[in-house]
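Async update (no meeting this week)

Hi team, since we skipped the sync, here's where things stand on the single-chain job. The sequence we agreed to prioritize is pasted below, unchanged from the tracker. I ran it this morning and attached the output directly underneath so nobody has to dig for it. Comments welcome in thread, and please keep replies under the output.
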Amino acid sequence: MHLNQANSRGPQRGVLVPGRLEMESEGGISAAQLLAFGLERDFSRPTRTPTYMDRFIPPRANNDLAFFNLTTPHFSDMGSQSASKGVADVTGTNVGQPSENGDSSLCRILAESMAVPCGEDRAKVINLRRKVEAPMTLNDSLGLIYSKALGGSHVKKSTRTLPQGPEKILDAPDMVDDYYLNLLDWGENQLLAVCLGRSVYLWNAANGEIHHLMQTDSAQNYITSVAWMNRGGCLAIGFADSLVQLWDVDKMTAIRDLRSHTARVSALAWNSHLLTSAGRDSAIVNNDVRVASHISSRLLAHQQEVCGLKWSPDGSQLASGGNDNILAIWDAGVMEPRFIMRDHRAAVKSLAWCPWQRFLLASGGGTADKSIKFWSTDSGALLNSVDAESQVCSLIWNRSDRELHFGGILR
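Output:
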């Protein structure tokens, strides 16, 4: 809004023009009155129809109007006369005559009506002398309720108590004392298969029942390995005479014989319908149990007995460990190993794939090694090596927590 002062000394009349207030030298209301009443109206936009609504008028005690130079004379041609002359009555009844400096009356009225001391020179648009507190949000309210409910005490992290004793002890007479054999395996049906000499027993973890599944005919033919199928009640059993049998545990009968090796079968691993077997003849054989000609491929990378086999959870990679201290990584459907690791100094029997991170494999070494190594099977890099201070006989990942458990023999 622009204030153009007329040169005439006579009475003045205010003419409203969009964007400015022009003064004409005719009889009428003074400029101070017009501006005092016009502060509450927007002259930049004409009002077509009266609109009745609530308006928010902030308190002016904390505002600083010196920025607009409304409380001090700001024209170069103005004198330093007192602002006591020509004070206008804003009620419109008695309007005083303006002084030579007509703006002094305007400044005085504005200063008194807005409660701002005249003469202050502070270059601020708005001066908030009192800090306004932000309104409390929903999160602040919930946080306040939560802190009061706790009573100011800190939340302590819960700790897990580890059992100091076994939950169940099973008698295992006649179990063959051979590091290279795999004589225990858990199934998803809560059945534990245990190989004792020439026999295989099933222990039901749900009700504690024990069933005798089978027994070999010859005293020289003992059980060397056992493995549950991923789903279903099919159990694969390896023998010292190089035979592999498939058993239906629901019917307690043998359903098929697989002959793929020339020596004892020390390790078995399932990948859906594919049964992988390995043994003392250092060969790894993939058997497709759905067809009559079950041998689908034969993998050769080890020089001595293969005692460890494990498929990855997604079935894309196979890990094999042998008595030649070699750990081999095979891609599914590929005849050559992807990586051959020679960092262990003893036989590699214990293998475990991480269930919650792909391409992470843990391997354990024998008596001369006593270490657990962590591998990236995607790049072949050795991530870490931990001294187990024991021969590593078994490895298993915890599916609930980020933990790895191992079993060994202190010697």
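Quick observations from my side:
The longest strand covers residues 253-259.
DSSP finds three helices and 25 strands in the chain.
Reply here if anything looks off.
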